[in-house]
Every structure is written in C-alpha cells, then in structure tokens.
Amino acid sequence: MSEKKDDRSSRGLEDHGVIYVSGSIDQGTSESVCKQIIEINLTGQVSCIQLIINSPGGSVSDGFAIIDMMGWSRLPVRTTGLGMLASMALLIFMAGAKGQRVITPRVSILSHRYSWWSFGNHSELIAKRKEEDLTHQRILDHYIRHTGLQTAEEVQAHLLRDVDTWLTAEEAVRFGVADVVEGGALAPAEVVS
Questions:
Q1: Number of folded domains that form the chain
Q2: Which residues of 17-43 are buried (b: 16+ CB within 10 A; e: fewer)?
C-alpha cells in the first residue's frame, strides 16, 4: 500500500513558477535555470515566472543563455533582486518583464565592464579580440534595450564606466535598471474603528 503525499509538501518552487538563483552564474546555473523556464512553460500551471536573483555575477555567455531563454518564454518573466545584483546577474535581472523588475532597498547593485582572460598565440589573440568586441557590443545593446538610457555614450558615462559603478536602489530606478523598490519602511497600520 503506497502512502498518499500531501500536494502542498510535494510541490516545489517551480510548481508555483518561482526560480531562485544564488551564487555565481556559470554553466550549471545556466543549464538549471534554462531547464526550469522550459518546464514551467510546458506545464501551463502558472501565468508568469518569478525569477529571484541574489548573485555576484559570472560567465557572460552563460548569463546570455539565461537571457535568451527568458526572451523565448511565452510566459512573462518577472525579476526580483535581493542581496546582490552584480555584473552578469544585473543583466539577467534587467531582462525581466518591464514594469515587473523589483529590487529590495538594501540590495547591492554593481554595474561594470566585463573582464576577459585571453591567451594563445598571436593569431588566436586576434581572433579572440573579435569575440571580445562582439560581446562588448551585445552588453551595450542590452543596456540600451533594458534601461532608460538611449545611447552607448550615455550607458558608458553612467553604468559602464572605466571603474565599478555601485548603485543605490533609487539610482537603479532612476536609470531604468529596475522598475520598483519594495520592502522599504513599513507604512503605519490603519486604525480600525
């Protein structure tokens, strides 16, 4: 005789359309998040996906795989940033559904130019330089598409400077990196008469 499981205890976050990303963005993270987005789309049990991110960033190519999967999703992907949104994690967060990109007031937000390690012989380095330039352009285009900044010059002046750019939650909203700051000071309780 088999035991019947309680539906609530056997359901995971995915069953509710929630994906939680923490730690570095790498191949394992990318594979897991992409598969979860596909599975949630296939089940048809929810009307949107909630992607919660707390990450210092990581691999550009693995991050763009997540962003591409978010764009593929027929369900809107809402993003919430808490703890830390840095580097590639910030780009993933920014790709969330417009108007539904929420940050907490104490989140640490880092926007910066990506780093790339290249080695090899001269011809390999020349070939890799093309990919570096293409990647930089992809990142600029992503910022222009997903922020309130209109040109590459504006993006580089405010968010992709030569030094790390740390943003407050309010600055992130002002630049159009995020839409809403939630979880701040609590409003006073209403008096019931």
A1: 1
A2: bbbebeebbeeebbeebbebbeebbee
> How does DSSP assign 70-124, residue by residue?
HHH-SS-EEEEEEEEEETHHHHHHHTSPTT-EEE-TT-EEEE--------S-HHH
Region 74-81: mean pLDDT is 97
Q: Which is it for the CA torsion 158, 160, 161, 165, positive or negative?
A: positive
Phi (first) and psi of residue 85, to 5 degrees: -125, 100
Q: Provide the annotated active-site residues.
A: 87, 112
User: What is the CATH number for 41?
Assistant: 3.90.226.10
Q: What is the pTM of this model?
A: 0.83
Provide the sign of the torsion angle of the four alpha carbons 157, 178, 97, 39, taken in this order: positive
Q: Both tokens of residue 136?
A: 């930089």
Spatial distance between the Cα atoms of 58 and 91, rounded to a whole number of angstroms: 11
In a domain, residue 127? The reply is yes
Angle at Cα 100 formed by Cα 10 and Cα 151, nearest 5°? 140
Residue 193 covered by a domain: no
pLDDT in tens, 90-117: 999 999 999 999 999 999 999 998 766 6
Name the token pair of 193. Answer: 């008469």
Whether residue 166 lies inside any domain: the answer is yes
Strand partners, 22: 54
Domain that holds residue 37: 11-181
